[in-house]
Structure formats: structure tokens, C-alpha cells
Design a protein that fits this description.
about 350 residues; alpha/beta; Rossmann fold; 2 domains; 3-stranded antiparallel β-sheet; 10 helices; 15 strands; about 40% helix
Length: about 350
């Protein structure tokens, strides 16, 4: 709550829309403070404990504290009337000229346990999620979308510059969410359609990043036909084959079950053809560390055309100043009824 307001305060990017009101409020506070000090009991007389009848003058601390809190609250109310605003950074509206769709395989074969991440054995999907997350964090300002495919393909997240939302949706993907088969053609076709209808800059580069560990065995649209459509639409495909071929261990469906081994074959020829038709490139990540290297290579190949000037939006800080004024008044009321209350 109020994260943008606090960010503006930390950055010191605060402006007043009506400066005259704050000067008026300061003038009123000065007059009231002078009148209160002239009339109020700033000093109290205390009889001498020695019994000599002498009296000493002491500052009336509770009265001065109450006056300070009330004047501070009045000043904050004046600040609220001056309509303070802050500037907070926001994501660029149209990106940097690069539109990118990541098509991630979530078929049953992505449950294979032949990947190592941070010293522990993980599934191919978990490794892909981690590497793709790191890749997205490096693509500041680009519009990125996410397509998930298995037996069918669907849009997990449309093109957006809100990468925090994109990372959240990426972590929600589970093996089998789109079926156990592999529809490479549908995944490519949907990714191209997302890039075509999303709008954006007319000269934007359109990239499809395809991550899979199997071969096409589902869907009516063939991968090569989908790649031809991508070429006609000006979409370049980077096809990434993940994992090794042959018999690999798979994650347990239920705790206590023994590991099962299944054969997984990567269709290198089809992926190479898809990349060649669309004037892209094919990569094979046979080992876990290869995938991070490939993502870094693609990041360099598709470097942004130039830095994006920062964009800011205005946010009102009036609520903060008003709440602060109410807190000072509440503190004044508490101290008046608590330890600082004057005894009769």
C-alpha cells in the first residue's frame, strides 16, 4: 500500500501544485504559535520543597508538546491543501522496438530429471523456467509474451512490458498443463499470431523463442508450414532443443514411487529446418549450463536498438500528508489522556 508514494519520497521527487497555499498555511501557523505562546501557560510556578516559601519557574512541557503536535498537524493539513505530487518511474509504454514471444514446452517429457540447478536435480521445465526468468530480467523495455504448449498451445501471457506480471505467470506453468503430446506447429502458429495482432511499433523486430525437448506429434499445423508463415510475417525463430536423447529418469508422480525411465528423442532435423526457414538459428542445450549460454547468446544477437528514455507518472501524496496530520492529532489526544495529563 502506497508503495509508489514512498518511492517518490525516497527519491525526493516531490512537487507542490499550489505553492501559495503552503505559504498561507505557514503564515497562519506562525500567527497561532505567537498567540499561543503569549497567552498560554509556558511557565508554571512550583513551591520550594524546603518550605522557605520560594517558588521556581518551570517550562510547562506537556503544554508545549501539545502545541507542537497541533501546529504540526495544521502544517500537514496546509501541505495537503497545496496538493503535493510525486514522480515515480514506470515501464515504457511501447518498448524498445523488439517484440518477443517465448513458446515453452510443458508436455509430459519436460518432467525428465536430467537437469541440475543449484546443486540439486530438477526437471527440464524447472530449469527452463529459471533460465527464461533470468533472460526476461535482462530484456528491460521489450514487449514479451508467453505461449505454453503440449498437445495444444495457449497464450499464458500476451505481449507486455510488465515483466513482473510475466515472471509470475511463468512460475505458474506445470508439466502437463497443455497435455502430454507436443504440438510444435500450433505453438509456432500461435506465437506468430500473437506477434502479428499485438500492435506496437511498425518497425519492431519480431522474435519467437521456441523451447522444446521432443518431436512434433500433435496438431494439424506442421512445424515447417508454421515456419513459412513466420517468415512471411517477418518473425525470426530461435529454436532451442532441450535435454539429451535416449532413456532418461522422470520425476515421481507420487511420493515413495521409484524413478521410472523413458526414452525421449529430440527432433533436431525439424527444429533446424524451422530455424532456417525463418532465418533464425537452432541451438541444442544438451547440458543444463548450455541453456544459460544459449539465452545469453540470443540476448546478444537481439541487442536493443538503443537506450529508452525514462518515463515517469505523477502520483498524489495528499493522502500521506493527511494521514500524518491525523496521526499527530491522535498522538496529542493520547498524551493528553495519558502520562502527560496534568493533575488537578
Amino acid at each position: 500500500m502506497w508503495a509508489a508514494e514512498w518511492e517518490a519520497l525516497r527519491a525526493g521527487a516531490v512537487q507542490l501544485e499550489d505553492v501559495g497555499r503552503i505559504w498561507l498555511a505557514l503564515g497562519v501557523i506562525a500567527v497561532l504559535a505567537a498567540l499561543a505562546l503569549l497567552r498560554g501557560p509556558a511557565l508554571i510556578r512550583v513551591p520550594d520543597a524546603g518550605g522557605r516559601g520560594e517558588r521556581r519557574l518551570w517550562l510547562d512541557g506537556p503544554w508545549l508538546l501539545s502545541l507542537t503536535l497541533r501546529l504540526g498537524a495544521l502544517g500537514l493539513i496546509g501541505l495537503t491543501l497545496a496538493r503535493p505530487t510525486g514522480l515515480v518511474p514506470q515501464n515504457p509504454a511501447a518498448g524498445r522496438g523488439i517484440d518477443l514471444v517465448i513458446a515453452l514446452d510443458a508436455s509430459g517429457s519436460m518432467q525428465a530429471l536430467d537437469a541440475i540447478l543449484d546443486g540439486r536435480r530438477v526437471t527440464r521445465l524447472e530449469l527452463a523456467q529459471q533460465v527464461v526468468s533470468d533472460f526476461i530480467r535482462e530484456r528491460r523495455g521489450d514487449r514479451i509474451g508467453l505461449v505454453v504448449f503440449g498437445q495444444h498451445a495457449f497464450t499464458q501471457c500476451p505481449l507486455t512490458v510488465d515483466h513482473r506480471l510475466l515472471l509470475e505467470t511463468l512460475q505458474r506453468i506445470e508439466v502437463g498443463i497443455a497435455g502430454d503430446a507436443t504440438a510444435l506447429g500450433e505453438a509456432i502458429g500461435l506465437g506468430v499470431r500473437r506477434l502479428r495482432v499485438a500492435g506496437g511499433q511498425a518497425d519492431a523486430r519480431r522474435i519467437l523463442m521456441l523451447l522444446t525437448d521432443g518431436r512434433h506429434n500433435s496438431g494439424r499445423l506442421t512445424p515447417k508450414t508454421a515456419a513459412e508463415i513466420a517468415r512471411l510475417e517477418g518473425v525470426r525463430i530461435y529454436a532451442i532443443g532441450v535435454g539429451t536423447s535416449g532413456s532418461v529418469p522422470f520425476a515421481r508422480d507420487h511420493p515413495g514411487e521409484p524413478l521410472r525411465f523413458e526414452r525421449v528423442d529430440l527432433d533436431r532435423e525439424t527444429l533446424q529446418a524451422v530455424a532456417a526457414i525463418s532465418r533464425g538459428r537452432f541451438f541444442h542445450a544438451a547440458h543444463p549450463q548450455d541453456l544459460a549460454t544459449i539465452a545469453s547468446t540470443i540476448d546478444q544477437l537481439e541487442a536493443p536498438p538503443g537506450p529508452t528514455p525514462p518515463r515517469y507518472r505523477r502520483t498524489s501524496l495528499s493522502a500521506l500528508s493527511l494521514v500524518a496530520a491525523l496521526l499527530l492529532l491522535a498522538l496529542d489526544a493520547l498524551t493528553a489522556q495519558g502520562v502527560l495529563r496534568r493533575l488537578p
